[in-house]
């Protein structure tokens, strides 16, 4: 809002100067005032609408440590487009006026345009156009940076324009006839006559871009020479004129007259540039005020309002996370999709970070080049790693270094992000069962969508039942029908949609243990176990006893919601991966 008010004040000053340049003509004053009021009111109204639109999306972000706008508004374009109309009008009318102004032969058109401050008007218009482009295209978090930048630059240029015009109003007029004093022999010689006549012609001529227009109403040719005088005399006379040193003289732009009364007045001192520097100094702190946090932004899947992933767009300009104490920054290349992401994005998961937050918990990537390296951290920038931590569906994540494990060279980022995959020996379709056996190392497959599937398990185990039930679906109660004496049922999750309730007599009957496992909570309660588990998994992987299974269709970050929906619709198996960065393209860029 402050920026809008300052733009309004700046435009009023511009209006004032243009009206002066146009000699206070009432028609110009009225038209410009109407234009100014219209554009300013439109700007204020559209700003109010933009604020109403964006305000709900401005929230405190814990990882970023400041309030951020996570949504941009298209109405913002109207905020910066409306003063531009006024700007264009000012620019064209000033150009027209400068071109139309009578001027002496010696003054080139470009100088006349410059003396009316056209360069400054042009610069201000270009800045406003740039601002419009920024408002239309920039990432939400960068929009305000653009405004600050343009605001600072416009203030500076406007300042220069005002100083420039003030100087133009009272500058010496070098070619003015009144300032000329001949120093000839004073005898009324031919040379004196020639010089006087030439001078007279010069002072009587003014040009407009459309040709010579004499001030005295007579059309003259610039190339005209004097007849009746020898070439030598004319040459001598021209030489004399060339030596004339103009005296200080005041030309009043406002009155458009050469003022003889101030003929010998000393010229005003050149305007000091200090006010310009002051304005730069005053605006630059605003420009840099906490904007360090705005410079680096990334693509991210941000949960601002709880909603199904399909309703959440990828944000292009989310501020990159800052590593807090003990954390490193990781450039994410691939991330693993989980069923609980669908729950977390809707606020239905048992662990909900404060909003806005970046979704995703499993990733593989490289330690960022600009990552701090905490004491004791074995990683260096560029090291390939994988691990877990909130915010994986973004180009960068900040994570405690203890949650990371080196990614072996023979493993791709996709496989790294898939290391959390579980071999499912029981599934809901024949296709998934085949995959469990073929790729997951399962010896048997049982389709739990068929009634009586437990009998099949009992048959396979020779009537004993299974020692361990690993259940991410929510089928513990059904599984207990085929669990062995002293068996262990591990509660992993409830993909079927509802949290299971269990009659405890079932636990007692076979001396079984029901064990919950919450992997994410290990980072909080038992962080030292995390790398141990990862290393065991890596050992399993390198020994060939297990391998991470990646679902054949991988998704770019922009289609993350499609990947999550595929999980939700039970289409997927193995680990579904989202490609956050393209490793090949990143390498090519690095080579460039
Ligand atoms: N405890 C932990 O530390 C931890 C860690 C990660 C995930 N989880 C939880 O574990 C559960 C599974 O997560 P995940 O990421 O591993 O998913 P997932 O196994 O990749 O996919 C879920 C599978 O569950 C089965 N399913 C059965 N009924 C379903 C239904 N109504 N809707 C959707 N799927 C259904 C589907 O297989 P079929 O088609 O073969 O039936 C589906 O493929 C989630 O509840 C999640 O929150 C827990």
Description:
The protein has 592 residues and is α+β, with helices and mostly antiparallel strands. The chain folds into four domains: 2-169 and 270-288, no CATH class; 181-245, no CATH class; 296-420 and 572-591, Quinone Oxidoreductase, Chain A, domain 1; 423-430 and 444-516, NAD(P)-binding Rossmann-like Domain (Rossmann fold), CATH 3.40.50. Helices cover 43% and strands 16% of the residues. A hairpin with a 4-residue loop joins strand 6 (251-252) and strand 7. Helix 1 (2-21) runs parallel beside helix 3. The longest helix has 30 residues, at 140-169. The chain is elongated and about 130 Å long. Bound molecules: NADP nicotinamide-adenine-dinucleotide phosphate. The site of NADP nicotinamide-adenine-dinucleotide phosphate has 23 residues, from helix 11 and helix 19.
Q: What attributes characterize this protein structure?
A:
binds NADP nicotinamide-adenine-dinucleotide phosphate, 3-stranded antiparallel beta sheet, disordered C terminus, ADH-like_N, 7-stranded mixed beta sheet, 20 helices, 592 residues, Quinone Oxidoreductase, Chain A, domain 1, Zn-ADH-like_protein, elongated, alpha+beta
């Amino acid at each position: 809002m402050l920026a809008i008010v300052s733009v309004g004040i700046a435009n009023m000053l511009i209006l004032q100067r243009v009206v002066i340049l146009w000699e206070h003509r009432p028609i110009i004053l009225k038209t410009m005032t109407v234009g100014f009021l219209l554009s300013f009111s439109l700007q204020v109204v559209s700003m109010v609408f933009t604020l109403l639109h964006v305000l709900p999306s401005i929230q405190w972000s814990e990882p970023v440590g400041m309030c951020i706008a996570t949504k941009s508004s298209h109405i913002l374009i109207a905020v910066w487009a409306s003063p531009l109309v006024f700007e264009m009008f000012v620019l064209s009318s000033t150009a027209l006026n400068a071109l139309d102004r009578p001027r002496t032969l010696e003054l080139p058109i470009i100088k006349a345009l410059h003396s009316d401050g056209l360069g400054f008007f042009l610069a201000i218009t270009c800045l406003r156009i740039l601002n419009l482009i920024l408002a239309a295209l920039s990432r939400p978090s960068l929009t305000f940076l653009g405004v600050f930048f343009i605001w600072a630059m416009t203030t500076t240029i406007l300042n220069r324009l005002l100083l420039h015009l003030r100087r133009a109003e009272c500058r010496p007029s070098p070619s003015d006839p009144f300032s000329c004093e001949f120093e000839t022999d004073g005898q009324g010689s031919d040379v004196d006559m020639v010089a006087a006549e030439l001078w007279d012609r010069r002072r009587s001529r003014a040009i407009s871009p459309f040709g010579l227009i004499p001030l005295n109403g007579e059309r003259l040719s610039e190339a005209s020479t004097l007849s009746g005088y020898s070439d030598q005399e004319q040459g001598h006379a021209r030489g004399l004129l060339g030596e004339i040193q103009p005296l200080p003289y005041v030309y009043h732009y406002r009155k458009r007259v050469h003022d003889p009364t101030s003929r010998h007045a000393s010229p005003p001192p050149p305007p000091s540039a200090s006010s310009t520097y002051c304005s730069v100094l005053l605006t630059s702190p605003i420009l840099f005020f906490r904007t360090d946090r705005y410079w680096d932004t990334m693509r991210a899947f941000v949960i601002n309002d709880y909603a199904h992933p399909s309703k959440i767009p990828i944000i292009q300009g989310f501020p990159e996370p800052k590593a807090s104490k003990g954390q490193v920054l990781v450039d994410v290349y691939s991330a693993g999709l989980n069923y609980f992401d669908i729950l977390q994005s809707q606020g239905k998961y048992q662990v909900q970070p404060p909003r806005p937050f970046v979704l995703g918990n499993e990733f593989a990537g490289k330690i960022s080049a600009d990552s701090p390296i905490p004491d004791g951290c074995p990683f260096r920038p560029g090291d390939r790693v994988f691990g877990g931590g909130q915010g994986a569906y973004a180009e960068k994540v900040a994570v405690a270094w203890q949650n990371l494990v080196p990614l072996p060279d023979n493993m791709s980022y996709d496989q790294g992000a898939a290391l959390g995959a579980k071999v499912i020996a029981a599934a809901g379709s024949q296709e998934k069962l085949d995959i469990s056996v073929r790729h997951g190392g399962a010896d048997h497959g049982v389709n739990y969508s068929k009634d009586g599937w437990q009998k099949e398990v009992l048959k396979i185990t020779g009537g004993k039942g299974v020692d361990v039930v690993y259940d991410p679906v929510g089928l513990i109660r059904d599984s207990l029908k085929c669990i062995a004496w002293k068996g262990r049922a591990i509660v992993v999750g409830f993909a079927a949609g509802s949290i299971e309730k269990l009659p405890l007599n079932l636990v007692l009957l076979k001396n079984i243990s029901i064990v919950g496992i919450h992997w994410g909570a290990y980072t909080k309660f038992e962080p030292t176990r995390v790398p141990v588990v990862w290393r065991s998994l890596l050992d399993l992987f390198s020994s060939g006893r297990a391998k991470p299974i990646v679902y054949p269709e991988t998704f770019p970050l922009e289609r993350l919601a499609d990947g999550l929906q595929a999980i939700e619709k039970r289409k997927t198996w193995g680990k579904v991966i989202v490609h956050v960065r393209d490793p090949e393209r990143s390498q090519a860029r690095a080579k460039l």
